[in-house]
Every structure is written in structure tokens, then in C-alpha cells.
Amino acid sequence: MIKKVLIANRGEIACRIARTCRKLGLEVATVHSSAERFARHVREIGESIEIGGAAPAESYLRIDAIVAAARRVGADAVHPGYGFLSENADFVRALDAAGLTFIGPRAETMERIGGKASAKIEAQRAGVPVIPGSPGGMKDPAEVLRLVQSMPLPVLLKAVAGGGGRGMAVVETLDGLEGRIESAMREAEKAFGNGELIVERYLPRVRHIEVQVAGDGQGQAIHLFERECTLQRRHQKVIEEAPSAGLPEPLRQAILADAVKLAASVEYRGLGTVEFVVAGDEYFFLEVNPRLQVEHPVTEEVTGLDLVALQLQIADSGTLPLSQAEVRCTGHAFEARLCAEDPAAGFLPATGRLQLVDFARAGVRIESGVESGDEISPHYDSMIAKLIAHGPDRDAARRALLAGLRASTVIGLPTNLQFLQELLEWPQTRDASFHTRLIDERYAPGAAAAAGAAAPGSAVPIEHLAAAALYWHGQWRAQTPELGCWTLSGLTGWRLNTGAMAPAPQPALVLKQGASEWPVRFSGITAQGDYRLRIAEEEIEATQRQISAGRYLLLCKEHALEVTIGGDAQQIELVSALGTAVLSATSYLGGAASDAAAGGQLLAPMMGKVVAVKAQAGDAVVAGQTVVVLESMKMELHVTAPFNGNVSSLRCQVGDMVERHQVLAEVSPV
Prior knowledge:
The protein is α+β, with helices and mostly antiparallel strands. Helix 7 (141-150) crosses helix 8 (177-192) and helix 12 (394-406) packs antiparallel against helix 13. Mean pLDDT is 89; it is low at 448-457, 493-500 and 589-598.
């Protein structure tokens, strides 16, 4: 009988598993890397063992360290969560040898269906339709190259051991193919310890449907209905829902039946997910994830089941605690993955400190592994939280999630918060006419302009501009010595308190977001305590009062608005009922200097590790040619030459950890 569980994971999933363990009366402990000694999962769970360095290969992927940690805390079972070692058969065998219960499938089952290539073989044996392509995994890049060249394009490259879109590449042209194959293999090797790839026919406009299954390990299996995971960006899920919207009932039942048939054929034990792609009235097996999924909460919401509790019960008893007839699907559920990333910069992941994280008014289920003041590290994924909403029907659940996102506040790093809100309002989301490439096509270079779509978050309301200007003013006033030009209540710091109450003839500052900018002129303060401002060409009166840490009440144009504000006098981030905005603030006299940038400098787009250097000092390069490759957030970032020229200096080498905006190399024009 299981008494204590070691959670061999981190972040939100570690916290979520611990809550269920405690509800069932089980003791719990976890593990952490040297970079996460004070992480939320460590704080919340309360007992944790440090197992190595910040990089996953030095900690969360160390089988020996996790087995030793389980023994040290007196655990008799290990829950792997998702990612890391959750699909590693060697890990399961090591736990078996140590007398520890693995909360998941057996090692031999994992080997049969955990890899994409082997799972495809098992699906064919069970009579489940599969996508045409290579019969198994391929280790030789030259072999992969030859096969791709022999197939009609587009073709999909997939990491055998991968997941979450890592180690995947869609090949639509043969240009640069060799480099793309090497990059996919390298990314897969670093993320999963296995660079093997399979090659398949690429189906460009499909839906991604997955079925939650449970088995007793003796040939009995059931399904817990399906999830719709079609809204993806670069093969990574963004919004999921349950059940799937708009599937014809005969097609739905065929998919559910095939998922159960496959699970039963391999005598699956525990929870797993069988994934399919749907193209028109056809469906094809994609892969099996022999673990808990990130999006499992939507299944919990519509079935009323605790899937972690179900995992623990199967592991403890070796039986299914419920029958297929007892599983009911009620209503509809949506989940959104809130991540630290910048939609305006191609969804580039962001790293650094979260100044404020607040979901108190969201009104939906929150699963998070961070709190205010925590760090988003380049060593792990960029997820801040999952927001999950349930409703009696699909539109009610969608609207509840939309309201929850609008009521959420994250300050300190760029996020996809506003993008998620926009995505839920897209017509294709509303009527479920989406496909897996919808987001990528919409935000491909030039696509937004062609479609007449604005970049995410590009419009800034006058209220946000006023709030930013007043916050900037307050920051400078607070930094000024007593009796300086800012400290008398009647002065703004930019004009004498005499004459007409008119804005100054020159701007005090310039607020900028992207290519847009707004000069701001201050007047003095009115008898009522209001500021008179001219923002661009609009003149307004506004006042702002702090009501708590980071929160202000803005009165502007007869509009009272609570605004959460963070940052400093140089960069200001705002969140309110009107949305979010991140604005740079530059004093008017300093604007020209701050805009200067040395041409040809190749800067690191974010903190990361240099994994490849493709050119040396003195080499000739062409515009767009990769010079340096970084690894961050489990993905590769290619830093390219901005124009044709020669590499005049190289300031990094393989293995270096570099900061965001650090100069990596310089290119001089020819």
C-alpha cells in the first residue's frame, strides 16, 4: 500500500500532484535543482531533495539522483508528472529494482508505445490507421535526408522520444534541409537524450484529437472521452478543450474505440493519452503519451474525476476503480496556457523575475507553479499558469475562460495573456473551424498585414497612456531630493507654477510601444488636484491614486479605472479591464541617445546557452545566414546576419551562458 510519494518533477504539475496526494492521506516530497532551491513547488510541498545543477540533464533527468532521493525521504512510490523522465523505461526499471512503485505503465509497455516509431508499429498491429511514412526511427542524418528527398512535400520530421513540439520540423522546401535535420536531431538529443527521428507525410490542415485512456495492466481499458488540442503554435498546444467540438458522432465513436483497442492490446496500466489527427472524415494514429498530460484538467472538469487520484488507485490496487458505463461527460471545458513570451516578437520566450502574478479575480481554476517574485528560468519551460473554465455548453465555457483571462494580472515579463484573449474571440475558435496551422499561418511574416490584422496588443487606450505618464512622473518625483523641482505639490517639474494652466511647449517624455510613440506634455496641477496632459494631440485631465501595492485608481475623462502598474521610470507595464500594455518611457531630451544602436551587432534575443557557432571572425556571411545558435526554454534560437558582410568579431563560444541583449558577434558590411 502506497504511503509516501516522491514527485520527480517541478512547477505546476508537482504542486498539483501534491494536492491530490494529501487529499488521499498520502505523505509527499519532491526534488529540485540548484537553480530552484526556493521555487514554489519546493515551498508548497515542504520537503525536497536537491538532485543537481540547473540544466535538466544535471538534475531532473538523473535517474540515480531521483532513486536516491526517494530512498532518503522514505517514499515507496514515485510520480513522474509529465516531461523529464515520465516516459523513460530505464527509469521505471531502476525504480522496480529499488522496490519503488512507479505511478504509470510498466517499462516494457512504455518501450512498445512510448516511442513514436514503436507506437506506430503497435497501432498497425491493432488495426488502427496510421500516417504513411518511415516504418521506424532513423539515426543517420544522411538516411533521413535521402528519404525526405524521395517523398512528396510537405514532410514532417518528429523526434522519436519527443513531445511538446520539440525536435519537430515541417519540411516544405528542400532548401537548407540538411541543417534543419541536424537541428531537429540536436534539439531532440538535448531535450530527451535521443536524437532519433521518424519521417511522415505531413497533413497541413488537420485537427488534433486525443483520447484519455485508463487501463488495469491486464487487458482491461476504458476511455475518459476526448480532448480537442487543435489550437497550436509551432506544434505546441495553446488552448485545449473537452469534449471535441463538431466531430461527427460516428467519427468520434470510431476514434474512442480505436484508442481503447490499442490500450487493451498492449495491456496498458494507468493513465495514458492516444493522439490522432483528423483530416476531413479520415483519422490517423499519431502517438501515445504514456503519462499524465498538461491538459488533463479539462477532462477532469467534464468527467468530475481526479485523474491523479485515478493514477494512484490503479498503481496501488492493479485494478480499474470504475467501468466505462460509469464515465460521464457533462458540459464543456477550456484550458489556456499562459506563458512568458512576447507575441509581438514572434512569441519569443521571456526569462526573468515576475514582479506580480495575481489570479484572485479570475474566477476559474488555476494551476500554477510560480508566484509574485519568482523567476522564469531559461532552463525550463516558460509556462506561468494554466487557466481552466467549465460551463454547461461550449460557448459558456469559452466566455468564462475569456473573462478569467481578462481578470488575470501578470507584470514583469512579456506574456501571451492578451493574445489568448484574442484567440478565444477568433471566428475560427468560436465555430471550431480551426486547424493545427491556423495560428502559425496568421502570424507568419507578412501574414498579419496581408489579413489586415493588428499585431497582438498594438492598440493602447488613452487611459493606459495617461496612467503610464502619471506613474512615470511619480517615479521621478520619488527619486528627487527634498525641495527639488518635483517635491512641491503644485509643480510638475517641467514648468513654473505661474500663468495659464497650459501644457508645456515641449514634451516631458515620449511613451513608445513598438513603432508607435506618444509625446506627453504636462501642465501644472489644477485646484482639484488633477493633472492636465497633452498626449500626442489629445488634451485631457487625469489624476491617479495608489490604492495598494502596485494598484492605482485612475480618473480620466469621466472614467474611473483600476490599473495595476509595474516597472520603473524606463519601462512601464499596465494591466486593467482595458487589457495590457508595455510602454518604454524616454525623457524627451534623452530620446535621441537612447535610440542610437551600433549597426551589425548580433544580440542574444534572450538568456541562453551557446550550442553552435556557424561562422568565425573574418568569414563572409549573407543576410539571414545563421551565425550563432542558442538553446533556451528547450528550444533552439538562430541568431542571423542582418545583411551581407563579414564577421568582424566573435564574442562567444560553444558552452557560454549569455544574457539577453549580450553582443554575440559583429558583422561589417562589404
